[in-house]
Design a protein that fits this description.
single chain; about 425 residues; alpha/beta; Rossmann fold; 3 domains; six-stranded parallel sheet
Length: about 425
């Protein structure tokens, strides 16, 4: 892990760069897959399942029988945990409903807006090295609350042609029944363009590997909305003498085990904290089942020793982390000054894992510095805002002449006439 001691502010941009991966050839390969799906539809999806998932499928659709069978393959203990998570996620996202009321901007001029659900959404759920059934809850729950009419779900099959039973259990718990055995960039292509089996959707959401991410960015260029730009998962931890080294190391490794391209950044007050964390990292890493993945991630992770609290804040806002853990004293004051982060975890007893699974907040968050301009998934992600206005006679008499003046100044005479013709009638 790279170590930096009290860096100068001028070096932040270079210092805090994410790991860079070559994308030109990746985009070319993904575009070929997208084109294949557009041209060949379901036939391409069957062929690509053989190529990438090493399975010959008889159907792309998960049957009701398969969903029913999955219920018996999930332990009661896990079902209970998933139910708890669903309850908390549902509670939090239901609180985000907006009630809009008309605003009279001036006498006789009423303006308001309404929220309306995006009718057709597609959810991508990774199922490779880690079957992310928690992401089903994070995406499908707000989609159902928003009132999306059609929700489809794609997840890669295993070598037996099955989707992980916990993914299917979570889907039926939330109420998603259109499920397809499709993974990778071909799943994104199918949802964006539609095939004989897969409906075309208006917006695609969900995390994935670099192929999935590239596919989402490419289909967005052709008119399919996506949740947000995304890169590898990341965490930044700010720690002082009140923190606990074993907690910090555990949180860094929790991020590192996502994938070799994940990144963990530690910003701590002194060298003693860093030394203790490094000792804990070595100890905990040795017994992790995903040790190989996590160790590669830790190699391109970063630790910064910076005693000045204001400079720590500058580093945080410059990096704009997906996940920000604050294991420090006076944490509320620091939190108030954070302007760039996907999600914040306050105090020693709030590991990022809680947000990943069950606290209620959404774990689909902006990465790669996009937290400077993007929010994580919320109820708003699944709705559109439509503005509405209504003008009375009195309102038109007062506002109409002002619009006539402005339209004429812009030399848009038809705009002026649309007002003038009405003014003459009243």
């Amino acid at each position: 892990m790279k170590k930096i001691i009290t860096p100068d502010a001028s070096s932040y941009s270079e210092l805090l760069k994410r790991p860079v991966f070559e994308t030109k050839s990746l985009n070319d390969k993904v575009q070929e897959i997208i084109n294949q799906v557009i041209e060949q539809g379901d036939d391409a999806l069957f062929e690509l399942a053989k190529k990438f998932d090493k399975v010959s499928l008889s159907s792309l659709v998960v049957s009701e029988q398969e969903i029913e069978e999955s219920l018996n393959l999930v332990s009661d203990e896990l079902k209970s945990a998933i139910q708890t998570a669903h309850h908390n996620i549902k509670t939090f996202h239901e609180s985000q409903r907006e009630i809009s009321k008309p605003i009279e901007t001036q006498t006789g001029v009423l303006c308001w807006r309404k929220s309306t659900a995006i009718q057709k959404v597609g959810l991508y759920i990774p199922g490779g090295t880690a079957p992310l059934f928690s992401t089903v809850l994070m995406l499908a729950t707000p989609a159902k609350i928003a009132g999306c009419q059609e929700i489809i779900l794609c997840s890669p099959p295993n070598k037996e042609g099955k989707i992980h039973p916990a993914i299917l259990y979570a889907a039926q718990l939330v109420g998603v029944h259109k499920i397809f055995k499709i993974g990778g960039s071909q799943a994104i292509a199918a949802m964006a363009h539609g095939t004989q089996s897969v409906p075309k959707v208006y917006k695609i959401l969900g995390p994935g590997n670099q192929f999935v991410t590239a596919a989402k960015m490419l289909v967005q260029q052709n008119g399919t909305a996506i949740d947000m730009p995304a890169g590898p998962s990341e965490v930044m931890i700010v720690a002082d003498e009140s923190s606990k080294a074993s907690y910090i190391a555990a949180d860094m490794l929790a991020q590192a085990e996502h994938g070799v391209d994940s990144q963990a950044v530690l910003v701590c007050s002194n060298q003693k904290i860093l030394d203790s964390v490094e000792e804990e990292l070595e100890k905990q890493l040795a017994v992790l089942p995903r040790k190989e993945i996590a160790s590669q991630s830790i190699q391109h992770s970063l630790s910064i020793v910076e005693p000045d609290r204001n400079k720590q804040l500058e580093i945080v806002n410059h990096y704009a982390p997906e996940h920000l853990i604050l294991s420090i004293e006076d944490v509320e004051e620091f939190t108030d000054k954070v302007v760039n982060a996907g999600s914040i975890f306050i105090g020693n007893l709030t590991p990022e894992s809680l947000g990943d699974y069950a606290s209620g907040t959404n774990h689909t968050l902006p990465t790669n510095g996009f937290a400077t301009a993007y929010s994580g998934v919320s109820l708003d992600t699944f709705v559109k805002k439509i503005t509405i206005q209504k003008v009375t006679k009195e309102g038109l008499k007062k506002l109409g002449p002002q619009v006539e003046i402005m339209a004429e100044a812009e030399e848009l005479i038809a705009h002026k006439n649309a007002v003038s013709i009405r003014l003459k009638d009243i």
